[in-house]
Every structure is written in C-alpha cells, then in structure tokens.
Amino acid sequence: MKRLFILCAMLVSQLSMAQISNVNLNGAPARLNSYSSVDGSPYLFEDWSKASIGTSNAGLKEDVAFRFNVHDNELEVINEAGNAIYLDKDFVEYAVLNRPAVMLATGSEGMLPSLLFKKGFDFVKAINPKDLVNVLAEGKKYTLIRRFYSDLVTPPKNSYSPTPGQMFVFEESFYLIDSDENVESVRNKTNNIIKALHDDDQAMAKDIVKQFKLDLSREDHLVVFFQKLNEA
Length: 232
Known about the structure:
Elements: H1 2-13, E1 27-29, E2 49-55, E3 59-69, E4 74-78, E5 84-87, E6 92-98, H2 101-106, E7 114-118, E8 133-138, E9 142-153, E10 167-178, E11 183-186, H3 190-196, H4 199-212, H5 219-231
Antiparallel strand pairs: 1-5, 2-3, 2-6, 3-4, 4-5, 6-7, 7-8, 8-9, 9-10, 10-11
C-alpha cells in the first residue's frame, strides 16, 4: 500500500501531458534531434496526442501521450518520469491512436477521430512482423489495412538548392486482404476498391455504395462499406 501511495503521488505531480501509469512498460530513450537537419517529419501526427496501448507485459494503458514515428515504425511515449521513450516493439500488441484536435478541426471530411493499429500482417509485402499498421476494416470476408510511411529522400540538385539535404516524404498504402490472405494493393477510390473485390461480391458492393451514398475516399465511409460487406 505504501508503494502504491508513493506511485500515485508521483503521477499526480506530473504535468497533464501524459503519463504511463506502469513502470513495467519496456522502452528505450528517444533519440533527441536525430532528424533535426531533415525537412519534413517522421511522425504520423506532428503534435502530441493521447493513445490507448495494449501490451503483452503490462496490459492496457490508457491516456498515454504519444507520437508515432512512421519512418521507423516506433511509438514514442512519455513515461512515468516525464521522459520520452520508444516502446519496445516486442511487447506492443495494438494501439488506438487519437488524432490531435487541431487535425480533426481542419482535416478532410470523414476523418476518423481515432485509428486502430495492430501487428500480424507480415504476409503483406513491405510490412515486417513487428510493424504496426492501421486496420480500417477487419471481417470474415475482407480486411482493409493502411501502411503509413515517411520516406527519407535526397532531392536532386537544382538552382534553388545547390546543396540539397534530406527530406521526409509522407506516403500511405492501402491493402485489401481476403479470407484466404490474398493481398491486393488498392487506392481509396470507390471504383478501384470495388474492382479489387471477388467478382461475386462486386454487384453487392455497388448496391451498398448506392444505398448508403458512400464515397470510399472517406475514412468513415470505408468503415461503413466493409462492415456492411462483411455482414452480408
């Protein structure tokens, strides 16, 4: 009880920007200024936000301050001491990442307020066993995942940049997976996704789009579409 009291007192004394309320979460110190000379950002969201993170060694942790380094596929969080660490990928099972409020206020229509990330899709090209990928839909017929990545490139020399440095270029790729784990790279466009479905499902998919007036370039409409398709 005495130890629990001390721990609670420590947590209360920290700033509201975020604590992990369990000292058993494993991680390594974040690399300070490792990309300070690189244009752009390695992070999914530049601003800090909150997450719920499921781990195999410490259970579920909620209201964790995070940034997701998609270039290295690492979750940077604030630990109980107020220090930035990268969580050990071996122990992270999934994470629900909340988008920063400013992004929701200024972002595109249909943007989801939170995104589910999971491991276990290493049968997809370019995805490693420990990588967290965004799962937009998961069902008995189809699963749709999205891989976020910030590629580090060196622009070609030109008259405006005689000594070009490196820069991050944000990328996202969508993969449609059927019940047999066949994978197809798709774009978040209505016609492209429908054509990637099995022939027997395409007519039904068109009916769902028409009935619910869906635009599959929107995240929220993608969720509804695959929910209806997997229930049928």
